[in-house]
Amino acid sequence: MRKLRLYLLLFTGGLLTACQTEQLPTQQEIAPGVIKLQAGEIDTYTPYALFGGKPALEAMKQLPTAELPFSPDEVRIQVKDRGCMVEVPLADDEQLYGFGLQIETFGQRGMRKRPIVNDNPLNGLGYTHAPQTFYVSTKGYGILVNTARYTTFLCGSNQKKQQNLQDAEGRKKIATTTEDLYKNRSNGNKVYIDIPGAKGIEVFVITGPEILDVVKRYNLLSGGGCLPPMWGLGFKYRVKGDAVQDSVIRFADYFREKQIPCDVLGLEPGWQTAAYSCSYIWSEERFPKHKEMLDQLKQKGYKVNLWEHAYVHPSSPIRKDMEPYSGDFLVWNGLVPDFLTPEARKIFSDYHRTLVEEGISGFKLDECDNSNISYASATWCFPDAAQFPSGIDGEQMHQIFGSLYVNTIDSIYREMNTRAYQDYRSSGMFMSSRNAVLYSDTYDHKEYIQALCNSAFGGLLWCPEVREAHSAEDFFHRLQTVILSPQAMVNAWYLQYAPWLQFDRGKNERGEFLPEAQEYEAYACTLINLRMQLIPYIYNAFYAYYKEGIPPFRPLLMDYPKDKRLRDISNQYMIGDGLMAAPLYENKKSRTVYFPEGTWYNFNTNEKYEGNKEYEINTEFDQLPLYVRQGTLLPLSEPVPYVDPQTVFNLHCKVYGTPTASCQLLEDDGISYNFKKGEYNIVTLEADKGEVKLKRTKEGDLKRYQLSGYEFIN
After folding, report:
1. Strands 691-696 and 200-207: what pairing?
2. Cis ω on the peptide bond leading into residue 277 (within 30° of 0)?
3. Which residues form the signal peptide (predicted)?
4. CA distance 444 to 442
5. Do residues 206 and 221 lie in contact, with contact meaning Cβ atoms separated by under 8 Å?
6. Using CA atoms, how far apart are residues 420 and 342, in angstroms rounded to an integer?
7. Is the pLDDT of residue 10 over 70?
8. Would you say 680 and 664 are in contact if contact means Cβ atoms under 8 Å apart?
9. Is 166's pLDDT higher than 80?
10. Which neighbouring-strand residues pair with 591?
11. How do the residues of the chain divide into helix, strand and coil, expressed in percent and rounded to 5?
12. Which DSSP string corresponds to 489-503?
């Protein structure tokens, strides 16, 4: 009987423990306007612990204070055998955005989102190159779940059994179609967040009062936005994957002879002796004198970017040393470095430093995401069950691998006090301060534009791609979008000749140029020159990103939160404070453009548009679908063939719709981190009484800008 009583006591005690799953989380303000809720045992490796950096506290203190639409006490956390469940209140009239680089959805209310790293999106589920367990609300707050585990967000899509009776009454109507039967109802009053496997969790509640304030606070919590080198804002061209030394030089000469600006030439896998996996050794067969080639390219004004991925080939010089510091599964017969260990980071960065010292300005870090988890046949990457020396498993490593990878490479440049501008295919949270741009092999143009908008919610930079096209409209609309993105790049990795000469892949390979090749080449040159004109303006937008956390490329609703029409517009976006892009993505030369409040001007024609209205607007192949907000002083530079440390930008300023206006430009060396030590000027351009004047905070040898002219546009 005593044994039976003891058994019953243990059994009922176990039931009691199992029932007491809900924990009252601790609360702590970790930075101005950021409240951390914590319950249970926190994982060793979380995004904030790994990538959070030092919050820009002084800048965060300058942001407006705001009250949440709910009390932090209303955020419930349950720790169960399955993992953690978080419940966040959701009002009837709020919309949600975020979850990283989302490619198929914009407003997320009513969705079941799983922001999981993957090399391809799938039906809006949230699979993406850059997943983030972070969303923002039109009510002026953000919710960030600080985990590297696969997480599911039920964004008002589901209700617990205490659902309201009114909804139950509405379901009495008999559905007669499958569409009506299964339609999304999005009427839940909670966001339920499911984190399987977690023994505890941290939830950051980030205050507004508006979405832009939330995003600024998040970026400043990450250490502030990045500031790329000035040359990184020029034009980049990636040559064909099997290019050889002579063909690279021919491309370099082509751009200079045709007077088409180009700052960076990117080499694809063929530069190495082995690429899948990677040897990181120059191929003497294709590049017999690669150092001589690099010197030639430098003399012609080019930076060089090299493609690679992190999987270490058996022939690589670092293979043996990396063995103890890699995961237990191979990828393409290559080792997977555990970049969480200092040994793996040192082995990898020490070797790559030799490439950087030879003159490599940056790397394209490919396939650091995951093979497509929506296909059973896609198996190239390491499995979720993989184990790494640091103790982390494959699931969590997938979510952070791209960020760890770019940090490892970026550390080389930072130690050399040099700014790089990397390409990478996977990212996550708290990466705002890294000089790196995401890209993808997906190729839906409309989704590219939407991804530009979505990337801004989580401190990410996104580069749409252009290579082949099915028509002239398709090609030039893609090129226009690229010109108006964080990195202006043509990725011609499978094209023998420039795509504006022939955008059909097969004909390009055979050297069959378009009848309009010369004309289209001139159009492409014009568009790239327009990008060069915008460099001072874009550079200043990035400086605001660095100082204040304002995304340089962002959806319109951030600037106009009261305009409810903008909640659904993801095919237009702001560039800095004064420019709005409305890319074309259909097979015609016009599109409908919605203008927010105020007066706007066509960048190409100076035509005026009244705000809160739609217009059908035509844009030619050699124009940009770009619009200027009234009150903007726009500094346009005389185009240069490339940007170097000696480049001086001759500015022609345009003042739109006002007699008085001003703008400020950061004037620094454009390549180092010395600006963080105060080695810079602020140049003020001020319009008043019919003229524009240029002033500096201090005089000195550092002069990147000079005023050559101006005009007032009314």
Report:
1. unpaired
2. yes
3. 1-18
4. 6
5. yes
6. 22
7. no
8. no
9. no
10. 617
11. 30, 25, 45
12. EEE-TT-SS-TTT--
β-bridge mates for residue 438, sequence order: 424, 462
Read off the pLDDT band of 104 (50, 70, 90): very high
Structural class in CATH, domain 23-161+180-221? mainly beta
Q: How far apart are CA 393 and CA 44, in angstroms?
A: 12
Task: Answer whether 0.85 is exceeded by the pTM.
Answer: yes
**Does the pLDDT at position 356 exceed 50?**
yes
Say whether pLDDT at 128 is over 70. Answer: yes
Q: Give CA–CA dist 309/358, Å, rounded.
A: 19
Give, rounded to a whole angstrom, the gap between the first and last alpha carbons of the chain. 96
- For residue range 72-102, list pLDDT tens digits in order: 999 999 999 999 999 999 999 999 999 999 9
Q: What confidence score (pLDDT) does residue 180 get?
A: 64
Which amino acid makes up residue 263? Answer: D
Contacts of 365 (CB under 8 A, 6+ apart): 308, 309, 310, 402, 405, 406, 409, 422, 423, 424, 425
Contacts of residue 617, Cβ cutoff 8 Å, sequence gap at least 6: 582, 590, 591, 592, 593, 602, 625
pLDDT at 352 over 60: yes
What type of residue is 389?
P
CB-based contact 339:347 (threshold 8 Å): no
Using CB atoms within 10 Å of the CB of residue 616, give its burial: 0 to 12 exposed, 13 to 18 middle, 19+ buried.
exposed
Mean pLDDT over the full length of the chain: 94
Assigned token pair, 210: 């508006």
Across the beta sheet with 705-713, what order do the strands follow? 633-637, 649-656, 705-713
